[in-house]
Amino acid sequence: MAEKKWVYLFNEVEAAEKAAGDWEGVRALLGGKGAGLADMTRAGVPVPPGFTVTTEACNAYLAQGGKFPPGMWEQELAALKEVEKQTGKKFGDPSNPLLVSCRSGAKFSMPGMMDTVLNIGLTDKTAEGMIQKTGDARFVYDSYRRLVEMFGSVVLGIPDEAFEEPLAEYKARKGYKTDTDMTAEDWKAITEEFKAVVKKYKGFDFPQDPYEQLRLATEAVFKSWNGKRAVDYRNAAGIAHDLGTAVNIVTMVFGNMGWNSGTGVAFTRDPSTGEKKLYGDYLLNAQGEDVVAGIRNTEKIEKLSEQLPEAYREFLQITEKLERHYREMQDVEFTIENGKLWMLQTRAGKRTAKAAVKIAVDMANEGLITKEEAVLRVSPEQVDTLLHPQFDPKAMEEAKSSGKHYAKGVNASPGAAVGQVYFDANTAEKMAKEEKQSVIMVRPFTKPDDVHGMLAAKGILTSEGGATSHAAVVARQFGVPCVVGASEIRIDLEKRQMEANGVVVKEGEWISVDGTTGNVFLGKIPTTAPKLEEQTDLLTLLQWADEICATPGIRQGWPDRGLQVWANADYPADARRARAYGAVGIGLCRTEHMFFETERLPIVQRMILAETSEERSAALNELLPYQRNDFEGLFEAMDGYPVIIRLIDPPLHEFMPDEEKLLEEVITMRVKGETEGLAEKEALLASIRAMHESNPMMGLRGVRLSIYMPEIVEMQVRAIFEAAANQTLKGIVVKPEVMIPLTGTVKELEWIQPRLERIAKAVMDEKGVIFYYKFGTMIEIPRAAVTAEEIARVAEFFSFGTNDLTQMTFGYSRDDAERNFLVKYVEEGILPQNPFQTLDREGVGRLMSMAVQEGRKARPDLEVGICGEHGGDPSSIEFCHLVGNNYVSCSPFRVPIARLAAAHSALKHRVGEAAKVVEDK
Amino acid sequence: MAEKKWVYLFNEVEAAEKAAGDWEGVRALLGGKGAGLADMTRAGVPVPPGFTVTTEACNAYLAQGGKFPPGMWEQELAALKEVEKQTGKKFGDPSNPLLVSCRSGAKFSMPGMMDTVLNIGLTDKTAEGMIQKTGDARFVYDSYRRLVEMFGSVVLGIPDEAFEEPLAEYKARKGYKTDTDMTAEDWKAITEEFKAVVKKYKGFDFPQDPYEQLRLATEAVFKSWNGKRAVDYRNAAGIAHDLGTAVNIVTMVFGNMGWNSGTGVAFTRDPSTGEKKLYGDYLLNAQGEDVVAGIRNTEKIEKLSEQLPEAYREFLQITEKLERHYREMQDVEFTIENGKLWMLQTRAGKRTAKAAVKIAVDMANEGLITKEEAVLRVSPEQVDTLLHPQFDPKAMEEAKSSGKHYAKGVNASPGAAVGQVYFDANTAEKMAKEEKQSVIMVRPFTKPDDVHGMLAAKGILTSEGGATSHAAVVARQFGVPCVVGASEIRIDLEKRQMEANGVVVKEGEWISVDGTTGNVFLGKIPTTAPKLEEQTDLLTLLQWADEICATPGIRQGWPDRGLQVWANADYPADARRARAYGAVGIGLCRTEHMFFETERLPIVQRMILAETSEERSAALNELLPYQRNDFEGLFEAMDGYPVIIRLIDPPLHEFMPDEEKLLEEVITMRVKGETEGLAEKEALLASIRAMHESNPMMGLRGVRLSIYMPEIVEMQVRAIFEAAANQTLKGIVVKPEVMIPLTGTVKELEWIQPRLERIAKAVMDEKGVIFYYKFGTMIEIPRAAVTAEEIARVAEFFSFGTNDLTQMTFGYSRDDAERNFLVKYVEEGILPQNPFQTLDREGVGRLMSMAVQEGRKARPDLEVGICGEHGGDPSSIEFCHLVGNNYVSCSPFRVPIARLAAAHSALKHRVGEAAKVVEDK
Question: Which of A314, A576, A692, B649 is the 20 to 30 Å CA partner of A526?
Answer without folding.
Answer: A576
